[in-house]
Amino acid sequence: MNIQFTRHRRLRNSNNLRAMVRETHLRPEDFIYPIFVVEGDNKKNEVPSMPGVYHLSLDLLNQEIEEVISLGVKSVILFGVPDEKDDVGTQAYHDNGIVQRATRQVKETFPELVVVADTCLCQYTDHGHCGIVENGQVLNDPTLDLLARTAISQAKAGADIIAPSNMMDGFVAAIRHGLDEAGFEHIPVMSYAVKYASAFYGPFRDAAHSTPQFGDRKTYQMDPANRDEALREAQSDLEEGADFLIVKPALSYLDIIRDVKNQFNVPIVAYNVSGEYSMIKAAAQNGWVDEKALVMEMLVGMKRAGVDLIITYFAKDAARWIREDQ
């Protein structure tokens, strides 16, 4: 056969050769593991819609953290599920709130672990929205003060990173100003800069007990049809003082991740959200997919799209699989 063509397969002949030329790599330190902490004692209750994800009381939290660290994962993000809720989310910014207590406990025992604090009101309000509600409307500006108070209380408890997820206009500016005024100018802000009003959040709302009691969140979270708006949101948050930019969800928004990465020279974070997790878990439990292969392909796709870090419920599994393959 006397024709000319390029032999790309030369670089695929063996596993070691493929590893030599691999362009994208996953490491356990790329992952941020979400943990849901609850009030009470001796509680480890599986979230019905998220197999393998649990509500954990503080007396069992250290055991979970020890496993996370043993797998090489260097960061967790803490979500609180309080027993008491009210219309202004008081437990979100109470110095003895569930996230604040969990943060103090983790940092006292595992000081090198990076603790990210989710900074929002929705799981602390009795109406389930991410801000103050009046006459059925979520009020932007009055909410900012509560978000700043929440961030300050979390920083006082020892949080290494503040991660505000509410999508109020000006939330990064308010939090940055509040942190700086309180003497926490060294604490970075990991902004949920690009957060879509997505159907993929359902299982998380089951886990965080944060389903809105009326309406939806489309007046403050982004329309999934919009692309240019993501860049405007990210630009605003950077100008207001964000140090990291989160894109949420991840799997259906890889184009947005790449756009944000191309435009901004800061660490980009993907949130591999609950619906993405639960779909794979359900399919794997039915024997329809190879869970390990599918998860690792998905996470590599996120890294290839441009993210530096991934918030994922698969963090422990993925770290374990990486270790086994090595």
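Second entry:
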Amino acid sequence: MTFSLRTPDRKVHAGVILVKGTTELLDVAPFEFFAWVGKDSLKMLNFTPEMIEEGLDVELHWVTEDGGPTKMKSGAQIMPTDSFKTCPPLDIVLMGAHDDKYRLTEGEKGFIRESYDTCTAFLTICGGIMAMLEAGLLEGKTVTGPRMIVEALKKQVPNVNWVDKRWVHDGKVWSSSSLLNGTDLIRGFATETWGGGSGMIEASLDAGHYPARDVDFKDFHGHHFEVEHF
């Protein structure tokens, strides 16, 4: 029987793949949403019995190649729960950006490909899309990435359909634009995957004030800065 992420018949394994290059903390922070949709968390938030009954059984994984810590841009370190060898197959994968001077190891590229093959949803936030690009997984895909380099990516990587959106969904790939647009992606992904029913997912998103913003940036009033090369 095919596994359904919407109506899982077993524990869901969700994981952040961390590489040894410096990672953006704001990219991977939205992953914590999955820690708030379990029954214990919903009880703590005093959700209704109907909503609690819809709580998800999700086991969270933070994964590096050797199971050792990895650095964040702001100087903190994350201690993983798993190495590539100990991590079970992931149903949901999330990747954030890594230092643009860092090149993935063959082991990292291999694990990303393996995880893509076995997962139901592969989420990238901001520059996390570049790991999929390095791993050779974006041919013909419609994706987005850091907004300041999308136009440059269109010219330099023409075999991928780059779009200027807050987030975009193509098959099992969910990609988001810059940094905090990852929160928009989480809302879109969670609503489409588990929304409706008792309203538990929508209530969880609203409780955390995950934004519901225009996917085409029509409500963005700041300065859109672009670079010619990345």
